Fold each of these.
Amino acid sequence: MNIFKKNSVPKICPKCGGKVVKIIYGEPTEELFEASDRGKVILGGCCIAVDENGNQISPEYGCIDCEERF
Ligand SMILES: [Zn+2]
């Protein structure tokens, strides 16, 4: 269930109150690994899901504490 619209991403996780950050897809660079270590981004892996129109359907944001994805 996704109760969030794309243009209204929460800054704080509604589940645990943790910080919500952007999920980065693709092969991560060292910079991205560092950013991930500091809790600035979540690394989503190299696989990104798209629909038949080429629109991204993988979650764009996630909670760094409970890993809830939006
Ligand atoms: Zn959370």
Amino acid sequence: MAREILKVENITKRFGGLLALDHVSFYVNEGEILGLIGPNGAGKTTMFNVITGVYKPEEGRVYFKGRDITGMKPHSIARLGISRTHQIVKPFGDLTVLENTMIGALFGPRHDTITEDEAREIALSVLEFVGLRDKAEMPARLLNIQEKKRLELARALAQEPELLLLDEVLAGLNPSEVAKMIKLLRKVRDEKKITMIMIEHVMHAVMNLADRIVVLHFGRLIAQGTPEEVATNPEVVAAYLGDPEMALKFVKRLRR
Ligand SMILES: Nc1ncnc2c1ncn2[C@@H]1O[C@H](COP(=O)(O)OP(=O)(O)O)[C@@H](O)[C@H]1O
Ligand SMILES: [Mg+2]
């Protein structure tokens, strides 16, 4: 039977007068890939910031494996087994790819017992997994954008999370790089058995990868369901019509 790994209940987050999240509730089952979509400014990244403890919500609770983690500090939440990638990738440029990845391992659930050698071993294995093993000794600032996205994923994976939050890992990639990244994310699910929430604008990717999708619009959850249910939901289509590029992608998807 499906087991809930994460539940957010009634989350409200305000920035001054702006209601970035308005009583949002959803759940993620273990082993699932949940797509989190919505036009720019919908509150997607804010939701990740609430889940990972960067922001404290004004209302609502976040439960991870049944435990209330609302208001806990980000490093404590990371240690429980939640890691994330950032929409804007900022590796430590002067550190090597390997060192950047080791940082992930040192901040994960095993932070208190892990040795530097073990962290290096985990990092090297993760770099192999994401296809960056041959760049391990290179300063991170020399990586191109798709390599930086892979490094961001490697750092998050080195934390050995049970739940991985991906914030637009495909943004800025060309179509062939997108295809490779989708393959890699499948491998994360199938081989590492990590549950994922992916925020994504590349619609065919979410539609392909996600088991279920949650749609945010101006901070409100306007739809959730299977990719098919969501793609044909009139309120969802209408929300995207405000954003011509997204609307076009939606229409293309519907016509396929
Ligand atoms: N730290 C902040 N201070 C003030 N406003 C913010 C902050 N973070 C996000 N916002 C606002 O909250 C809304 C939701 O932003 P965000 O969660 O980044 O949207 P998305 O990731 O869906 O594009 C936007 O209007 C954004 O400008
Ligand atoms: Mg965002």
Amino acid sequence: MHIPILVNEILAQLAIESHHILFDGTGGYGGHSAAMLAGLETGKLHIADRDPVAVAHLQDRFNGDARVSIYPMTYADFVTTVAVATEPAYPRKIDRLLVDLGMSSMQLDDVSRGFGYLHDGPLDMRMNPEDPISAADILNRYSAQDLSDIFFRYGELHQNKILVQNILSVRRHTPIVETAQLRDLIKTSYHFGKRPIMMRHFAQVFQALRIVINREFEELERLIQCVDQVMSAEGRVAFLTFHSQEDRLVKHGMRAYPHWRMMTKHVVLADQSELRENSRAKAAKLRVYQRCY
Ligand SMILES: C[S@@+](CC[C@H](N)C(=O)[O-])C[C@H]1O[C@@H](n2cnc3c(N)ncnc32)[C@H](O)[C@@H]1O
């Protein structure tokens, strides 16, 4: 089960009213959606997720609730459609929008998806299995320069030359298709003094691949480009991010709109009691923006 993060803080800052049009762009297990629905009467909740497993789960969870519509698509596709849509299936404007940009526990714990570096599984990492490129495709086909750029830019792994050389030399005779192979390649490419440093390298490499495969930064940039257009006059947008690059993208992207202000002076973090319940909340940072004319 996925435990939703910073629920009370998100609800407090979104201040949802019973008639509001809401959009949860990353429905996942539906935890935040359920919380957002609590005070909704005449309003509507639109939920998107790109992962068909999550969509099936959401359809099941909110089955029969006339306030809810579920869209098997990315959140950026949803908002760009809203920006131009005339079809009744899409809202004209959105009052409250949330994106929770982490991985769901359903995704991380399913070894067949290949997201988790602690598990043995296929090197896939596509949130939507119909997307064209898997982690194995990247590791077996991309040039040394492209691999190095990916690890540098998206994993902030600045020393990656030996890792890239080792990937190229292994794939000459054996396709790299399992998470265990990638872990071994990372282990043989660095001298780790301590286990936490090794784990950090695993996380950086897996994160870099996941970001590229799922075009995560492009999604976020496309959303930010549309925010001003699709949100209503008193709109509020909540971004829950899980690493510094994502948080920077939000911070810098939202600066393009001087009439949008962050509602708190600093990002909101999970407190000790939430961290005790849910270690995945450790990296979470919440920024909520409101339009101020
Ligand atoms: C951390 S989970 C969300 C959990 C959810 N807030 C809850 O309370 O259960 C992130 C979800 O967002 C989905 N996702 C990630 N990027 C997406 C995108 N660009 N568009 C739509 N869904 C996306 C993932 O498939 C995953 O199910």
